[in-house]
């Protein structure tokens, strides 16, 4: 009976945390520096007893009380007829189902980690094209960019983490889940730069495919736990 | 685990009782990244008239203790939290999302009548 009672309390506590059952993750996701920093700043403020507005994320400059880092659940597209300079094509997909209806989205930031930031084995200049997937498709073959790229960026590689603001896109996906068909990422190699060595395109792209890590940092505000404006509690 | 009160003399008087819930004891350390547990402190103890004149009590408690002394039918003042602090939890859910969530008024820092 005691065990049963305790089990009941555990479920009640999980619901309080906003969970419907005890999570049992199969593999641990890397925790980005920014989440650790925000956590440690909160812990320090709570320890010193300083007053803190739990509904604002100072480090990010947005209002919100729940931060989620969503891993990319997409996949690479392989095809023999990739355009010459195309290094990789990837579908990026983020599951927004964890966001509750009443939560308001205040930030959605795509992070593309291209790999370590070093200048010793500087790779070729890269051009990234990011576009919305507008309609379902068979992903058996590579495709030309499905829509007009809404983000184009040219970077020397390796570059570290590139960030893109996807708040409007994420709001649209959150309001119309059937529209969430993911993003199409294409990375092209701009071969006009001569590094004095003849780098092999394929193994450069293989390294890039190995090191690329995409994630979506989402911040939401729960109006039941946070006062609409930043009105202080009396 | 309960952390013993500092001095036994005021054991029965209203004060903060410290209780630490270690997430490992619940098996939750497998999905909660930080913290390792949290302080489930609570307030408990008597609020006699003598205590209501101390700093941590409210005027209402002073009056109620006075009335309780006159007519024991009137209950004593009660021991409640007078200062609370929030906690943050960094955890992973079943969709491999890493979540940081803040919960306000979760930890009892001080108690009073």
Characterize the structure shown.
The complex is a heterodimer of chains A (234) and B (113). Chain A is α+β, with helices and mostly antiparallel strands. Chain A has four helices and eleven strands. Chain A has a five-stranded antiparallel β-sheet with strand order 4-5-10-7-8, with helices on one face. Chain A has a four-stranded antiparallel β-sheet with strand order 3-11-6-9, with helices on one face. The relative contact order of chain A is 0.23. In chain B, strands 1, 2, 4 and 5 form a four-stranded antiparallel β-sheet that branches. A three-stranded antiparallel β-sheet of chain B has the order 3-6-7, with no helix packed on it. In chain B, strand 6 (80-92) and strand 7 form a beta hairpin. Chain B is elongated and about 60 Å long. The model of chain B has no long low-confidence stretch (mean pLDDT 87). The interface between A and B is medium-sized, with 36 and 31 residues.
Short summary:
Chain A is α+β, with helices and mostly antiparallel strands and 234 residues long. Chain A has helices at 2-16, 33-48, 167-175, 201-211, and strands at residues 56-57, 62-63, 66-71, 75-77, 86-92, 104-113, 125-132, 151-156, 161-165, 183-190, 213-221.
Question: Keywords for this structure?
Answer:
heterodimer; A: alpha+beta; five-stranded antiparallel β-sheet; four-stranded antiparallel β-sheet; 11 strands; B: 113 residues; alpha+beta; 7 strands; elongated
Strand content of chain A: 25-35%
- Oligomer state of the chains in this structure: heterodimer
Spans of at least 5 consecutive residues with low confidence of chain A: 192-198
The largest sheet of chain A is: 5 strands, antiparallel
Could you state the order of secondary-structure elements of chain A as H and E?
A: HHEEEEEEEEEHEHE
| End-to-end C-alpha gap of chain B | 25 Å
Q: Which class best fits the helix and strand makeup of chain A?
A: alpha+beta
Number of strands of chain A: 11
Model regions low in confidence, pLDDT < 50 over at least 5 residues of chain B: none
- Largest binding interface between chains: A-B, 36 and 31 residues
Fraction of residues in helix of chain B: 10-25%
Number of helices of chain B: 3
- Cα radius of gyration of chain A in angstroms: 21 Å
Choose one word for the global shape of chain B.
Answer: elongated
Beta strand count of chain B: 7
Strand order of the largest sheet of chain A: 4-5-10-7-8
In terms of DSSP E residues, the strand content of chain B is 35-45%
What percentage of residues of chain A falls in helices of 4 or more residues? 10-25%
Through-space gap between termini of chain A: 43 Å
